[in-house]
Amino acid sequence: MRTTNRPIFLDIISIRLPIPGIVSILHRISGVLLFISLPLLLWLLAGTLDNAAAFESYRAFVAHPLVKIGLIGLLWAYLHHFFAGIRFLFLDAHKGLALNTARTTAKIVMALALICTAILGVWLW
């Protein structure tokens, strides 16, 4: 017999996380995305070092709009992971643990990552 009112299953879609929780989950997702994309990024960087023909094929590949969008997505992942990592370092040092401060720094991380991605994405496009 069940005595608590706890749910039997978790409905992930209906759970509403606070902004610090969203930043935390996006930090993990961006880290996994960066790790998985390492072979592609290393291949792209290696293509610039080979010879002139390899560099031109690299430029042709990177010039495709879908590749550019993917690289801008990776740029966002890097920037979000960087800014959130700095935030978590401060949290580990017991700085910014108050609820209002944690919410504010989470909003700052989200804004900085999106603004820097937009600026660099437009500049690099």
UniProtKB/TrEMBL annotation:
Keyword Protease: no
Superkingdom of the organism of origin: Bacteria
One function term, GO molecular function aspect: metal ion binding
InterPro entries: SQR/QFR_C/D, Succ_DH_cyt_bsu_CS, Succ_DH_cytb556, SuccDH_FuR_B_TM-su
Residues noted as binding heme in the record, renumbered to the chain: 81
PROSITE patterns (UniProt xref): SDH_CYT_1
Membrane topology summary: Multi-pass membrane protein
Entry keyword set: Heme, Iron, Membrane, Metal-binding, Transmembrane, Transmembrane helix
Localization per record: Membrane
Family statement: Belongs to the cytochrome b560 family.
Role played: Membrane-anchoring subunit of succinate dehydrogenase (SDH).
Full protein name: Succinate dehydrogenase cytochrome b556 subunit
Native organism taxonomy: Bacteria, Pseudomonadati, Pseudomonadota, Betaproteobacteria, Neisseriales
